[in-house]
Amino acid sequence: MSKISDKIINTVKEKSKNLEAEMSFFDHLEELRWHLIRSALAICVFTIFAFAFYTWIYDHIIMAPSRKDFWTFRAMCQIGEWLHRDMCISSINIHLINTEMAGQFTLMIDSSLMIGLVMGIPYLLYELWRFIKPALHEKERKAASGFVFYASLLFICGVLFGYFIITPVSLNFLSSFTVSGQIQNLFSVDSYLSSVSTLTLATGLVFELPILVYILANIGILTPKFMRDTRRYAIVIIMIIAAIVTPTPDMLTMTVVAIPLLLLYELSISVASMVERRRKKRNADAEAS
């Protein structure tokens, strides 16, 4: 009889443990859901803000890289004077057309949402950090305390670099490129917005490379030695990326794009080295204790 009662008690205990684990799992899911809801609300607020001031945003932000008086083109002209080269842009042949009944309204919605997403990324990273933080140990929290700041800073720098450097140079080349003089370049508003947003956002994500390396180095997948040994291959890949992103035969432009990517790679090596030093210090402290 006692054996049966012990079995029942053990079964109840096991079920209670499983139930507690399931509840904990669902609690985490619920917590994640609220973090995502708050992030979505923040993006919606920024989207509404962009929608309310859309006329100014369209004239001074979205269409600005397609004008010859854009900051980048004026800077290129100034640099050309210093180098005694003609780098001034006289005109940019971008003629936008709308081929759909609701095309312009869709453009307004899509571009407002895109701007809201870009402005909301730092808050999304903050919510992600709040979700991950309780699962970390005290030392891990201290080591990753600047995650939101550095990830947001790198993303903003990437967006600015993509918007001010890559986007105008690419638009200038693509708008003037022709296979035949019989073909006239007429671009749809959707195509223009897609090009600007893709180049800008993609560069912002590429600039998150040091954060990705930090995570992979902490897991143990990447080491500074491996990154140093593969530097020559990384340089080739970066030059290929620069050539794709800036489809222009001008070597100077491709170099301007490649230099920040090379600097990011070197920064990532430094980040991986820092993680490795911290790991060795923790191991040494553990052995000493």
From TrEMBL:
- TM ranges: 36-57, 105-126, 147-166, 199-221, 233-249, 255-275
Report the principal subcellular site: membrane
Q: Name one GO cellular component term.
A: TAT protein transport complex
Alphabetical list of Pfam families matching this protein:
TatC (PF00902)
Q: What keywords are assigned to this protein?
A: Cell membrane, Membrane, Protein transport, Translocation, Transmembrane, Transmembrane helix, Transport
List the Gene Ontology MF annotations in alphabetical order.
proton motive force dependent protein transmembrane transporter activity
One of the protein's GO biological processes = protein transport by the Tat complex
Per the UniProt entry, the signal peptide is: none
Q: Where in the cell is it found?
A: Cell membrane; Membrane
User: What is the recorded membrane topology of this protein?
Assistant: Multi-pass membrane protein
What protein family is recorded? Belongs to the TatC family.
* Quaternary structure and interacting proteins, as annotated: Forms a complex with TatA.
Function in brief? Part of the twin-arginine translocation (Tat) system that transports large folded proteins containing a characteristic twin-arginine motif in their signal peptide across membranes.
* This protein's name: Sec-independent protein translocase protein TatC
Organism for this UniProt entry: Mucilaginibacter ginsenosidivorans
Q: Which gene encodes it?
A: tatC
